[in-house]
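Predict the holo structure. Ligand: adenosine-5'-diphosphate.
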Amino acid sequence: MNLMVFGAPGAGKGTQAKFLVERYNIPQISTGDMLRAAISQKTAMGLEAKTYMDAGELVPDSTIIGIIKDRLDKDDCKDGFILDGFPRTLAQAQALDELMKKSGKKLDFVLSFDVPDELIIQRIAGRRVCPKCGASYHTKFNCSKVEDVCDCCGDELIIRKDDDVNTVKNRLENYHKQTAPLIDFYKDMGVFVQIDGSQELNKVTKDMFEALA
Ligand code: ADP
Ligand code: AMP
């Protein structure tokens, strides 16, 4: 199954992707996580990406398309994958379409989590993430068992640098300008599924699995 989780930053893509990984045993491919890993390894690509990410801007298409191409070629993607945070521009969506066609694959579903901007701001304000596994928690809506400690890894949770309120506003603006237009692209492809992502977490998961049944 080749899936995509789609929506604004903070819509719950990463949170729901973890449930898909568990159920289908296919990898979550998060471009944000891959870029953050490159930053912590201090690669040239990571250092270049950091300036865009810290400002809440999108990293250039050529960089992102390159890392996705290499990642989808890996063996663990042969039975399927979950794209998370990619594509974010029409050029990326078109490049993905070409890559898929070349490898004889097709996207099965684009699961789009619809969440109003006011709620996005609240979600991102309380987000805490595990720097090791990328798990995402919230101080009120989705608490870790022990405060500031990852349930899975035991690592200390952090606040993402780009989750500060001004950067979030810019990220949301960029989402509406550059990424939301992809909704029509995937509707035309016949793979788009809209889910009310503003509901409580378990209800979103339930609706997502019902859509896939
Ligand atoms: P994205 O991957 O789309 O950027 P996340 O999955 O990291 O978003 O979720 C953003 C924040 O919202 C996190 O703090 C997460 O714990 C919380 N969250 C996710 N889904 C819900 C939900 N349905 N209700 C309340 N909070 C949620
Ligand atoms: P995310 O973890 O998905 O919220 O992404 C964090 C940041 O990484 C974004 O604000 C962008 O700067 C960058 N990024 C992640 N994925 C992409 C993408 N597909 N295209 C461009 N930039 C991206």
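Residues 165-179 form the longest helix (15 residues). The pocket of adenosine monophosphate (ligand 2) is lined by residues 9, 31-32, 35, 52-53, 56-59, 64, 85-88, 92, 162, 171 (CB under 6 Å).
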